[in-house]
Amino acid sequence: MEMSDFLEIVKRQWIVIAIITLLAVGAALVFSFVQKPLYEARATCLVSATTSGESEYAAVQVISTLLHTINEIAVSSPVLEGAAQRLGAAVDLNQLKQDVASQVITDTQIIAISVRDEKPVKAMNKANAVAVSLVDYVNKMTGEKSSYKIEQLEPATAPKSPVSPRPVKNGIIAFILGLILGTTVAIVIDSKPRWTNTHNGL
Hints:
single chain, alpha+beta, Alpha-Beta Plaits, 2 domains, four-stranded antiparallel sheet
């Protein structure tokens, strides 16, 4: 199909394309506005290690392994149970496990702990509780003479705007998908009469 043919189809079937696009955008906006807003708070922890006498490569490997291990520990049951105890009986441990996430920030020795909640202050409190619990747990397990340590670098603050839903972003995505779907349907509808005529001619 040449571009001129495509443009002719668009001209003939623009109503179909417009309707499908508007339906897609409308559905995305409705879906966005009926969802409860979620806020995300983030606390960070710094992992450092003593690597005297080791080669630079060996030191990098040690820190990389430490970061990966501690990142996994951050969302483990012992750490989250400790965080739940700090937060009080009102916190559901199973829900906390679903709301928390941990990741190593690329090219750093920093671990970011993120927690989502419907309330900004609750998200902040949970993120800080997990970070403190992680620091206490790791330092307790390794002891004072350990060659590495972890400390809270930056406490979480209450987020001002939700991370979900994002009606503008959802609307833009729906608009693009609606155009694609609408154009596809338009091509099918426009080509059907031609196929029918060809078939009848045979």
